[in-house]
TrEMBL record:
GO molecular function (one): oxidoreductase activity, acting on the CH-OH group of donors, NAD or NADP as acceptor
Species per Swiss-Prot/TrEMBL record: Ignelater luminosus (Cucubano)
UniProt name for this protein: Alcohol dehydrogenase
UniProt keyword annotations, A-Z: Oxidoreductase
Cellular component terms (Gene Ontology): cytoplasm
Highest taxon listed in the record's lineage: Eukaryota
Keyword Oxidoreductase on entry: yes
Family affiliation: Belongs to the short-chain dehydrogenases/reductases (SDR) family.
Pfam families: adh_short
Cited InterPro entries: NAD(P)-bd_dom_sf, SDR_fam
Amino acid sequence: MNLNKIIWNHLLKSYSLLQRSIQSRNKTCCDCCCNFCKDKVAIVTGGADGIGLECARELLRNGVRGCVIGDVSREKECMEELTKEFPPCKIVFKHCDVTNKCQFSELFKVASSQFCGLHILLNNAGILNDGEWEREIATNVTACVRGTYMGLECMSKSKGGEGGAIINVASILGMQHFAGSPVYVGTKHFLVGFDRSIGDPYHYDRTGVKIFTICPGVTITPMIHNADKFAHKEFESGMGKLLSDALASLPPQGPEAVAKGLIVMLNQGRSGSVWVSEGNEFYEVRIPDRRTFRVGCGCCS
Ligand SMILES: NC(=O)c1ccc[n+]([C@@H]2O[C@H](COP(=O)([O-])OP(=O)(O)OC[C@H]3O[C@@H](n4cnc5c(N)ncnc54)[C@H](O)[C@@H]3O)[C@@H](O)[C@H]2O)c1
């Protein structure tokens, strides 16, 4: 073989290696970043109405192959709405009160038996009702922790799963105080701290499951329509009005804004990240280190 031929072969080989590397980089971008939902299986709790229903719709639009909806009400209405747009074989509605451990675990069994897997869990079911604060904590906190652990059990690569994403729906009230509903505020603060911790790379590197928090602002759903009825009864009368007036002063949005944001976050977000959806804007937030908001020296006051 003469020298020219050797150089020519070498160039051809390098060119084909380069092409393959570009193709594989593009493939990673398309398959992993740009379209996380394609062919995945999702569970949406509280998916029969409001933010959950809209998120289920958006997940289906983005190509999930199966969506299991768990809710305590509106089975007929929810199925009617979704099957206008998507084939019924892609959607299963299961009556599920997330505060009931057996009913919640059924959702995971259905995902496995009907769609052979699970990749996305949206812990969306939540209530705003400080008048029934024990049920509020059971729904907004305990059920989300249980769901997250059950989701990790199914999806973790370390347990034979394929990895995936778990999203807990908190609130902008998970990052600020609000006199009108102290327990609700506490439950949503819990989720932000829990998700940032369980979403840390320490866990993600082992599980391959990203954990996200979405914090919606005022979103026009049945929950917001009824907000004035749900203050704690022990508080002076007028607390319900304080609650509804304060919520009315914030920029509103439709549930579609949260659902569209969910897809952006699934495609681009890192595990442990916290995202706000408010007034039709969707953005990631970074929680500051406590030392940056220190106001004085405790020993002098
Ligand atoms: N709407 C808002 O302004 C707003 C703002 C911030 C956060 N959020 C959060 O978003 C989530 C969804 O809120 P939404 O406004 O769509 O509420 P919504 O009341 O309109 O819908 C909630 C759905 O969850 C279901 N649900 C309630 N308890 C359940 C339970 N124990 N088990 C299963 N399903 C249950 C309801 O039947 C309903 O279909 C909640 O976690 C809420 O705290 C809402």
